[in-house]
Amino acid sequence: MKNEKLSTKERILSEALTLFSVKGFSSVSVAEIANAVGIKAPSIYKHYKSKQDIFKAIITDMDIRYKKYTASLQISGDEALKDIGFFSMVTEEKLIETGIKLFLYFLHDEHTKKFRKMLTIEQYSNTELAALYVKQYADEPLLYQSSVFELLIKEGILKPENPKVMAMHFYSPIYLLLAVCDENPGREGEALQMIEENIRQFIRIYGK
Amino acid sequence: MKNEKLSTKERILSEALTLFSVKGFSSVSVAEIANAVGIKAPSIYKHYKSKQDIFKAIITDMDIRYKKYTASLQISGDEALKDIGFFSMVTEEKLIETGIKLFLYFLHDEHTKKFRKMLTIEQYSNTELAALYVKQYADEPLLYQSSVFELLIKEGILKPENPKVMAMHFYSPIYLLLAVCDENPGREGEALQMIEENIRQFIRIYGK
DNA sequence: TCTTTTGGCTAATGATTATTAGCTTACATA
DNA sequence: TATGTAAGCTAATAATCATTAGCCAAAAGA
After folding, report:
1. C-beta of residue A15 within 8 angstroms of C-beta of residue A33
2. Residue intervals in chain B for CATH 1.10.10.60
3. pTM surpassing 0.85?
4. Alpha-carbon span A154 to B157, nearest angstrom
């Protein structure tokens, strides 16, 4: 149906992730994955040695994607820091754009979204995945935002309040609204408006 | 082992919830539940007509508990509103206590915690549960906090900013830190400190 | 062109599953 | 005391599951 260009091996991964992200690993049968790909169950084993193996491949794949994603942030971050124009870019509209882009990326990027849902389901039965979940959706975004705000405080653009708390005020509403919108696409507009108001208030409060 | 006073029927519910909250409904076998209770699988059917039936009973049970919980909030809320001493109670320390109590209730109350984890796992495969999740952990807490802040604004205790955004700044960090601590009990202290700092900053910012 | 590899298939296996049938025992009630 | 019911048990059933064996055709490589 979709992804005509992908190899069978890749399509297995893709369809498996789609199914795992809704029903969870153990509720999805190999036959179901095969059916979604358009082959029979035993053919799956020509590509992966077990169902677990498919799962591991998904994790590995997402690990690579995530490293690429954070690397791209790091680069544009570093460049931005060196860029003289950076601080002038920290306007209200730019900050709103940043927040909304982050939100929409997490919400609409097919792979990220499915992977996040799968992690959400599997986190309680797998210690490694629990750690990965907290790292990707709490610790790292907070750390990143925190370091940005710390810089803006040093530059006298924001008031000298605790940057970690500021990161909480900026990021945690986005995290919560993600959970709201995941299964309620109809509430996306409302969420976007909330994020915008949130950031305007953020600047009114913390801006100088 | 525990709950010596509960009937078998109640113990089935309790042990099933414990298992569902870790592995999810479909990954838990009836034999597993029976084993946790200390009986054999077929005996389960003397108390519930199917595995689904156990699940429904858990939902119904939690519905009742939740109604009791919100009713208790409503009463103490109304009383508080009428109470002349209420507004003088809105000190920094009292607000911190409120936030920390909310956090610790969600984090440590055995039933709430297990039910929340189960909802988290099952939300993507069950529309009803998805709605319940958003209602209990996003919409209603935000609505409640929002109405409290609205009142405090009218009374001139807080600055006239958007109370919905204020509720976001107050509640969403608690929601996020819950996800962090659920599978990392070691980080509870850090989270409590974060909540405290968050509320202190909240008051510094919004207080008059 | 010949041969090997790739990737599909059907059929089979053995484990696990939810659930039912039917037996037994203890207790509650008549 | 007699009897019915509640709640346990073992054994059985039928479905579903992951996985393996082994066959076949087409594509790739020699």
Report:
1. yes
2. 1-63
3. yes
4. 31
pLDDT tens digits, B1-22: 333 578 999 999 999 999 999 9
Rounded CA-CA distance B166/B161 in Å is 7
CATH number for region A1-63 = 1.10.10.60
What b/e readout covers B146-183, taking b as 16+ CB neighbours within 10 angstroms?
Answer: bebbbbbbeeebbeebbbbbbbbbbbbbbbbbbbbbbb
3-state secondary structure of B24: coil
Size of interface A-B (CB pairs under 8 A): 128
Q: How far is B168 from chain A, CA to nearest CA, in Å? A: 6
Q: Could you read off the pLDDT of A68-102 as tens digits, one per residue?
A: 988 887 656 555 555 545 555 567 788 899 899 99
Token output for A201: 């208030």
The fold of the A73-208 domain, in CATH, is Tetracycline Repressor; domain 2 (1.10.357)
Residue B126 phi, psi dihedral angles, 5° rounding: -150, 110
Does strand D come within 7 Å of the CB of A50?
Answer: yes
Distance CA(A114)–CA(A142), nearest Å, equals: 22
- Tens of pLDDT, residue by residue over A13-50, are 999 999 999 999 999 999 999 999 999 999 999 999 99
The CA distance from A195 to A104, in Å, is: 11
How far, in Å, CA of B46 to CA of B42, rounded? 8
**pLDDT the model gives residue B73:** 73
Task: Tell me how far the alpha carbon of residue B176 is from its chain's centroid.
Answer: 13
> Where along chain A do the CATH 1.10.357.10 domains lie?
73-208
Residues of A with CB under 8 A from a CB of B: 21-24, 26-27, 117, 120-121, 123-125, 127, 130-131, 133-134, 137-139, 161-162, 164-165, 168-169, 171-173, 175-176, 179-180, 182-184, 194, 197-198, 201, 204-206
Q: How many angstroms separate the CA of residue A45 from the nearest CA in chain B?
A: 23
